[in-house]
């Protein structure tokens, strides 16, 4: 078990790393779901756009979400749409046919079991077919403003590469980060690391020379960098 002093040192290092990564990212665009959440904090919009975003580029997610919300901005309206209509609205999002069926089922269940209100707990959200932990944590954090850490591929990769955690799966990373990150950083950590992971700490040949956090990074697993 890590001592309180070691944990405090990790937290302080994490704070410095977050500040440095923020400087590296600068004014680069936020991830699509964060943009949608900031425009209108609506748990339903966060849920739907996150489902659309899986295996899909940000610009495609933004446009697909915009088209779908133009015709169905509530669970009742989305649940009433035909699957083909949903498919057409969210195309060319990855796996759009599977997502269209899932979105319709999710919307109908929210309407019938929850009175049209998206559940505000991770466990309840995970009971929906098509909703994984990443989606659930984003809905809880960005939709409801509750403290949660959303771990996607960028968060998992960068946190381990820097040496902030040593984990094998995104779920392990989520719980390890809860012990390291100050609680006030939980919600914003995902959107920072998504931008940082896309533009600076890329999967292959990261841009270490342009990284303000390079002196705080262990570069675990990095073979080649720029």
Descriptive tags:
mainly alpha, Endonuclease Iii, domain 2, single chain, globular, Endonuclease III, domain 1, 226 residues, 0% strand
Query: What structural class do the secondary elements suggest?
Result: mainly alpha
Q: For this structure, what is the CATH homologous superfamily of the largest domain?
A: Hypothetical protein, domain 2
Largest sheet: none
- Indicate the percent of residues in helices: 55-70%
CATH hierarchy: architecture of the largest domain = Orthogonal Bundle
Beta percentage is under 5%
Domain module tally? 2
Principal-axes shape call: globular
Mean pLDDT: 95
The top level CATH class name of the largest domain: Mainly Alpha
Order of helices and strands: HHHHHHHHHHHH
For the record, give the distance between the C-alpha atoms at the N and C termini, rounded to a whole number.
37 Å
Helix count equals 12
CATH topology of the largest domain: Endonuclease III, domain 1
- Which spans have pLDDT < 50 for at least 5 consecutive residues? none
DSSP, total strands: 0
Radius of gyration: 18 Å
């Amino acid at each position: 078990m890590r001592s309180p002093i070691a944990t405090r040192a990790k937290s302080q290092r994490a704070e410095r790393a977050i500040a440095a990564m923020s400087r590296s990212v600068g004014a680069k665009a936020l991830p699509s779901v964060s943009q949608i959440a900031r425009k209108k904090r609506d748990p339903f919009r966060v849920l739907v756009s996150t489902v659309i975003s899986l295996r899909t580029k940000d610009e495609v997610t933004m446009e697909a979400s915009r088209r779908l919300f133009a015709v169905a901005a509530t669970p009742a309206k989305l649940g009433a749409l035909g699957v083909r209509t949903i498919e057409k609205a969210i195309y060319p999002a990855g796996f759009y046919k599977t997502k269209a069926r899932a979105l319709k089922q999710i919307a109908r269940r929210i309407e019938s079991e929850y009175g049209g209100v998206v559940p505000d707990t991770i466990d309840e959200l995970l009971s929906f077919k098509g909703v994984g932990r990443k989606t659930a944590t984003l809905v809880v954090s960005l939709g409801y403003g509750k403290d949660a850490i959303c771990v996607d591929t960028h968060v998992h990769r960068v946190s381990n590469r820097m040496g902030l955690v040593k984990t094998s799966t995104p779920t392990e990373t989520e719980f390890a980060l809860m012990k390291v990150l100050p609680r006030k950083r939980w919600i914003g950590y995902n959107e920072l690391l998504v931008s940082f992971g896309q533009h600076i700490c890329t999967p292959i040949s990261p841009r270490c020379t342009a990284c303000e956090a390079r002196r705080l990074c262990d570069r675990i697993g990095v073979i080649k960098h720029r």
